[in-house]
Design goal:
Radius of gyration of chain B: 23 Å
Shape of chain B: globular
Structural class of chain A: mainly alpha
Helix content of chain A: over 70%
Largest sheet of chain A: none
Strand content of chain B: 25-35%
Order of helices and strands of chain B: HHHEEEEEEEHEEEEE
CATH architecture of one domain in chain B: Beta Barrel
CATH architecture of chain A: Orthogonal Bundle
Order of helices and strands of chain A: HHHHHHH
Oligomer: heterodimer
């Protein structure tokens, strides 16, 4: 229960940040997709199902506010969360190579799928790569390590708290 | 272990199906606000306003000293421009009276540009990098309706695409995929202004024409045309910064929108609907 509230607040707080303050630190016109970082980090730490749920919530928030048809972002984030959590359930969590590379693939995969769903008719994938996908991915990857550290620390505290409850029973 | 795996797979598949159902249902329902959406948006709105306001305030403070010289320059330029505009305005008013006189003589009805408008502040901007949508702090309870035109800096910036009781979502004209029927003010040639990913990063749009021999030059003003199904005619979109002619002789103009996108802070909504059934493009 506590976990749901805490992670929900993180996702909600990130959404607030992304829609308001992050716009001011845009580089080359792109804003880092911190929502993806939160979802990917959480998926690495807690596995596929919980990663999918976190992705679903993060995407749903974005859908409800900024899209006319609801469900697309929710779907994409949920699937990304699921895939990122798949093989890495209890993986070695101290090195940063994993979150950073996973962010790279998650971002590019996600954006390419997004492109195919919305922009295929316009062609010119290379242009989209150059002006949106690549800068966005690089900028997001730069923030991958701090965000992952935060999520990791947060998750450790949550697990410690949960273990206490379990040992009582 | 196997049962757990099966349950996990079932869960993920049902989640995916749920999302697809959600998309279908909301698409069939027409894309309006949902109950869940209303709840979230209402709760989030004040926080977003506060954060955006703080961000703007910080941005202004930080740019304060850096911007001093630029401000002096701009002030001088604006004062000069203002003087010119005042003179033009009085000329136009004289012409307006003359035209109305003639229209009355011809027994036609002249609809002139005294549209009802409403000022709104930008509360939040799109968190992704594909679209330039933003949310303003006026909604259906203030009289905002879908498809109302939205202006910034006196020029077209987009239209309302979704409303909630106290907020509204605005789609921008520079978004890749949106199209506005426009005309070259000087020559009345009609074309379509579209967003373009390559130009979007520089804040530009492309105006495409369909006929040969279009007379358009750098510096020409581009306005909405009478053929637009969302916007009233005569609203400034921007000015031409360059003209390209392709191998078939068809011209396209790169237009700099007058509306300032970086970032949008306050907008003007025309609270009248001009929406007609046939499409812009």
């Amino acid at each position: 229960m506590l976990r749901a509230v805490v992670i929900g607040s993180v996702i909600y707080g990130n959404f607030l940040l992304q829609t308001t303050l992050l716009r001011h630190i845009a580089i080359l016109g792109v804003v880092p997709m911190t929502a993806m970082l939160v979802v990917v980090s959480y998926a690495i730490l807690r596995g596929d199902v919980e990663g999918a749920i976190a992705g679903f919530c993060a995407g749903l928030l974005q859908d409800v506010f900024f899209m006319e048809y609801i469900g697309l972002y929710a779907l994409l984030f949920a699937v990304t969360g699921f895939i990122c959590g798949k093989p890495f359930r209890d993986f070695f969590t101290d090195s940063f190579i994993l979150p950073v590379t996973l962010t790279l693939f998650a971002m590019i995969g996600y954006e390419v799928v997004f492109y195919f769903i919305n922009f295929t008719m316009r062609g010119r994938l290379m242009d989209y790569f150059r002006y949106i996908i690549l800068p966005e991915t690089i900028y997001t990857m730069l923030l991958a390590i701090p965000v992952y550290r935060l999520m990791f620390a947060l998750n450790k505290r949550l697990e410690r708290h949960e273990k206490k409850y379990r040992s009582i029973f | 272990m196997k049962r757990l795996k099966r349950r996990k797979r079932a869960f993920i598949i049902s989640l995916i199906i749920f999302c697809l159902l959600l998309i279908t249902v909301t698409a069939l329902a027409g894309g309006g606000p949902t109950f869940l959406g209303r709840a979230f948006v209402t709760v989030t709105s004040p926080v977003q306003s506060g954060l955006t306001g703080t961000g703007n305030w910080l941005g202004e403070r930080l740019g304060y000293f850096r911007g001093m010289a630029a401000l002096y320059e701009e002030n001088r330029r604006l004062t000069a421009e203002n003087a010119l505009l005042v003179m033009e305005n009085s000329l136009l008013r004289y012409l307006e009276e003359a035209v109305e006189e003639y229209a009355m003589l011809l027994d036609t009805q002249l609809r002139y540009s005294n549209y009802d408008t409403m000022v709104a502040q930008v509360r939040a901007s799109d968190p992704g990098n594909w679209y330039n949508r933003f949310i303003i702090d006026r909604g259906s309870s203030h009289g905002i309706e879908v498809n109302m035109p939205v202006l910034a800096n006196g020029a077209l910036i987009g239209r309302i695409s979704k409303t909630w009781p106290y907020s509204a979502l605005v789609e921008s004209i520079i978004d890749d995929g949106s199209g506005v029927s426009a005309k070259v003010y000087r020559t009345n040639h009609v074309g379509v202004v579209r967003g373009d990913v390559e130009l979007m990063m520089e804040g530009l749009v492309r105006m495409g024409f369909t006929s040969l021999g279009v007379d358009v030059a750098v510096g020409d003003e581009i306005q909405t045309s009478q053929l637009s199904s969302y916007y009233p005619p005569g609203i400034t979109i921007g000015h031409v910064v360059s003209v390209e002619v392709d191998s078939r002789g068809i011209a396209s103009a790169i237009v700099q929108p007058t509306a300032d996108f970086s970032p949008v802070k306050s907008v003007l909504v025309i609270t009248e609907l001009f929406y007609l059934e046939y499409g812009d493009w």
